[in-house]
Amino acid sequence: MQEKELTINGRTLFYREHGEGPSVVLLHGFGEDGGIWKNQFNAFPGYRLVIPDLPGSGRSDSTGDMSMEGLASAVKELAGQVFGEEKFVLIGHSMGGYITLAFAEKYPELLSGFGLFHSSAFADSEEKKETRRKGIEFIKQHGAFGFLKTATPNLYAPVTKEQRPELVEEHIQSTRQFSAEALIAYYEAMMQRPDRTHILRETPLPVLFILGRHDTAVPPEDGLKQCHLPRRSHVHLFENSGHMGMVEEAERANEVVGEYLREAVG
Predict the structure, then answer these.
(1) Which of 23, 27, 48, 143 would suit a FRET pair with 16, their CA atoms being 20 to 30 Å apart?
(2) Could you tell me if 34 and 58 are in contact, meaning their C-beta atoms sit under 8 angstroms apart?
(3) pTM for this one?
(4) Alpha helices per DSSP H over the chain
(5) Nearest to residue 28, comparing CAs of 88, 76, 90?
(6) CB under 8 Å, gap of 24 or more: what pairs does 252-257 form?
(7) Is 51 left (phi over 0), alpha (psi -120 to 50) or beta?
(8) Which is nearest to 5 in space by CA: 66, 56, 59?
(9) Residue 43 three-state SS
(10) What is the rounded end-to-end Cα distance, in angstroms, of the chain?
């Protein structure tokens, strides 16, 4: 896995790159960086894997536009500099899935497939917005790490927290670099994003859905309400995962994503 960086409008975007073949981009979610995909780094031989730290996360600078659309534009700049005109598969976890949908709306001609990994095309409900507003107030009072230390364990299934607490602790410790400004910008952008179920209905591309049985952030019943919308759906329910299937059931995740890639791009 090579570590690289490029400059977009004077700001650094850090990314990892591995392998050769059809190109695949994995986007992390809120309170994560690209390292959350470490179990996937070497899992897809025959593909060119690119995993950025999104603007404001990890080793990447924030940008002037931290909306889902603005972050999708940053991904487009990355793809243009790394892939040129080549199409690629884009798979996003959680907030990364919201960015993936914004990308699919703005730049569908660049994609050969896309996936929602514990994510949703629905806009935030009023209840969800209120939860995010409370999160913003908590961040302002206690700081970014204080918030993520409290919130991160809720992303994992009870069995993971009980039997493999080290996974949760490793995730928590990886969040120390976040700024309060970046987290608040992400939350505000997520609250403002529109419903994008029409993207699922209209796309001719194969769409991957990965759901977690114990996911409280994107409950499986919400995910299942949209899986039928695309013409070609690949749907997988991870029975032992919460919101972090790439960590909690890494082997299953690699198998499922690898199978999808073979069907989507060969």
Answers:
(1) 143
(2) yes
(3) 0.97
(4) 68-83, 95-106, 126-151, 158-163, 165-173, 180-192, 197-202, 220-224, 245-248, 250-265
(5) 90
(6) 253/39, 253/40, 253/117, 253/210, 254/39, 254/40, 254/43, 254/44, 256/208, 256/210, 257/40, 257/43, 257/44, 257/91, 257/115, 257/208
(7) beta
(8) 59
(9) coil
(10) 22
- pLDDT of 177 reads 94
Q: At what angle do helices 95-106 and 180-192 cross, to 10 degrees?
A: 50
Provide the pLDDT for residue 246. Answer: 98
Torsion of CA 115, 154, 250, 45, to 10 degrees: 40
103, 111 contact by CB (below 8 A): yes
Low-confidence residues of the chain, pLDDT below 70? none
Which of 27, 43, 47 has its CA nearest to residue 35?
Answer: 27
Q: What would the DSSP string read from start to end of 156-186?
A: S-HHHHHH-HHHHHHHHHTTTT--HHHHHHH
SS3 45: coil
Contact 182, 58 (CB under 8 A): no
6: β partners: 13
For the record, the structure tokens of 44 come out as: 């897809």
Long-range contacts of 147-152 (CB under 8 A, 24+ apart): 147/183, 148/31, 148/172, 148/175, 148/178, 148/183, 149/175, 151/31, 152/31
pLDDT computed for residue 265 by the predictor = 87
* Nearest Cα to Cα of residue 98 among 132, 145, 60: 132
The Cα 112–Cα 264 span in angstroms is 7
